[in-house]
Amino acid sequence: MPRNLDRGKRVKIYLVGGAVRDQLLGLPVKEKDFVVVGAKPSDLLEKGFKSVGKDFPVFLHPDTHEQYALARTEKKISKGYTGFQFHAAPDVTLEEDLRRRDLTINAMAQTEDGTIIDPYHGQEDLKNRVFRHVSEAFVEDPVRVLRLARFATRFKDFTVAPKTIALMKRMGKSGELDALVPERIWQELNRALCEAYPWRFFEVLKKCDALKIIFPEIDALFGVPNPEKWHPEIDSGIHTLKALEIATQLSTDPTVRFAALVHDFGKGKTPAEEWPRHLMHDQRGITIVHHFCKRIRVPHAYQDLALLTVRHHSACHKIFNFLPKTILKLLMALDPFRRPKRFFRFLLACEADFRGRKTFENKPYPQAQFLKMVYEKCNELNVRALIENVPQEKIAETIYEARLKIIKQMPKPAIEE
């Protein structure tokens, strides 16, 4: 709490939101937000606080740079998450400020002496591991659907209250979710990918019928069968989330996780008469993933690895069936000599796909090790010495033949089908 803000009897300051929640859960507090009750903007400005709020009064403490917001209420005046009118004044109470928040577990406050103020029973919901809306006003902000789903990626054992699920379904039917802008969708998706249980983001959205509205490419995978021999889980949507789960175990890199998420988008467009086979699904997926990335403004690094994975994951799985020329062709397409980090991320995404199947979760994936070894052996070539006396027009061919010779000499390990 600040020492240079004279609160007196009129002004009261409370720690609020995620900091209170995480303290009660025994988790480290990453950042602290405060709400100031009974104050005017001038009260904070006179004490050196810096105003940073665009739509309502938010200030940075002059020493700690923590955020202090004046207690406020809000009124919905138009669709979307920006369609609010805010009222911040000394007469707004703490309970009124907390009531406008999304979930009960985020609607608690703490006094300077550690007393918890919990008018909406957030502590009870923390104890029972439940995400529950504070009030009917939850339906007024479409971002809250994404935020709740993202909270599920952080707290694995929490469930969503049935009435909250019903509210989220109502938001989809009313068209409120259509107001979500691409940048905010990507922001919440990217945050979810960086959490411990990112697949839960999509499970929650599926349960409240929002997946088909926000991410139709993912929703289209559910109900699409795969051959049971290769996919005991059968359903393409289930496989996709399992692949994301394995990717989370393999890497903390969100680009790898994103690539695992989108790798099978092409299966959502396989004609039903061809089920359960999905010939050319990798090629179909290229266009779908490209449009998906463009639609929600996915950064280039994510898109680049994702498209590489979509295009070549099937070939990586079949590498032991290929002739040396085909192996070299794949290696050159993956371009590990110039972009080794992307190449290793690609191998992780392919392994996530392979192991993201029922009963395959703990199986080895020797294809990745083999391709890595091929790259390392080829990379050992002293290219400068190799082409020292080679005519310019023969350089590419000379390097190609040298690499091909290396691959021909490499034994392929036996693998378990």
Detailed description of the structure:
- By secondary structure, the chain is α+β, with helices and mostly antiparallel strands.
- It folds into two domains: 1-128, Beta Polymerase, domain 2 (2-Layer Sandwich), CATH 3.30.460; 215-408, no CATH class.
- It is 47% helix and 9% strand.
- The chain has helices at residues 18-25, 41-45, 94-99, 122-128, 143-154, 162-174, 182-193, 199-207, 211-214, 216-219, 236-250, 254-262, 281-295, 300-317, 324-334, 340-355, 366-379, 383-386, 395-408; strands at 12-16, 33-37, 50-51, 58-60, 67-70, 72-76, 84-88, 109-110, 116-117, 130-131, 159-160.
- The strands form three sheets. It has a seven-stranded mixed β-sheet.
- A hairpin with a 5-residue loop joins strand 8 (109-110) and strand 9.
- Helix 13 (281-295) runs antiparallel to helix 14.
- The longest helix is centred in the last third of the chain and has 18 residues, at 300-317.
- It is elongated, with a radius of gyration of 27 Å.
